[in-house]
Amino acid sequence: MKKIAVISAILDEPLMSQEQFNKVIANFKGIIRGRMGIPFEEEGISVVTITVIGEIDEINSLTGKLGNIPNVQVKTSISKKDIKDKD
Q: pTM surpassing 0.85?
């Protein structure tokens, strides 16, 4: 079963981490349904939210890879509802 999740990320040094962040996201494009990024230029941070539908292992893998990028903090909220595959 799949779940819907929202991954929230704060990039404390966007210029240093954005390229690596985007490469990780590109590797998971199959489960990503939406993405919103808000730059806070004066504060020197960026906030990104990503909505995904996938297996728990896929969601956890994406969250873990993003969280291993220096200067990136990640939190994930996963729905309790199971989403059936469309056949």
A: yes
- The whole-angstrom separation of Cα 71 and Cα 41 is 16
The Cα–Cα gap between 38 and 61 comes to 24
Crossing angle for the helix pair 56-67 and 14-27, nearest 10 degrees? 160
Question: Average pLDDT in the 10-30 region?
Answer: 96
Strand partners, 34: 51
SS in 3 state form for the chain? Answer: CEEEEEEEEEECCHHHHHHHHHHHHHHCCCCEEEEEEEEECCCCEEEEEEEEEECHHHHHHHHHHHHCCCCEEEEEEECCCCECCCC
∠ CA 4-59-43 to the nearest 5 degrees? 90
